[in-house]
Amino acid sequence: MMRKKQDNPLLTEVELEFMTVVWETGGGTVRDILAELNKRQERAYTSVATVLKIMEQKGFLTSERADRSLVYRPAVPKADYQKTTLKNLSSKLFNGAPAALVARLVDDEDVTDEMLVEIRALLNERLGDDER
């Protein structure tokens, strides 16, 4: 099946919840995905089937028939979606300045010193600088 071009490259909140299950499980039938979603919040089979079909039309999922069921799989790797979402956030909310996004993040009081040490290590690794 051909993948449709996405007008909006971002998932809605509900679609992201569904996509997270698909990424975690590698995909499955509507029943499989429904079972995982129902661990968090009760949902109707028809609602899940409808949302999965919409996500396939948007290009986030692929499906293939197995027996008498459709098996849905991710069409977009999680890392690719994270990258797209962060670029979108940086562009729309931080005027395309990743430094402003990071500055806001490290200024958040919920970010612990341990998290900041991790961020520093990631930056040092990216910059090829092992010194502190």
UniProtKB/TrEMBL annotation:
Keywords: DNA-binding, Transcription, Transcription regulation. InterPro entries: BlaI_family (IPR005650), WH-like_DNA-bd_sf (IPR036388), WH_DNA-bd_sf (IPR036390). GO terms for biological process: negative regulation of DNA-templated transcription. SUPFAM superfamilies: Winged helix' DNA-binding domain. Pfam families: Penicillinase_R. One of its GO terms (molecular function) is DNA binding. Belongs to the BlaI transcriptional regulatory family. This is Transcriptional regulator. It comes from Phaeobacter piscinae.
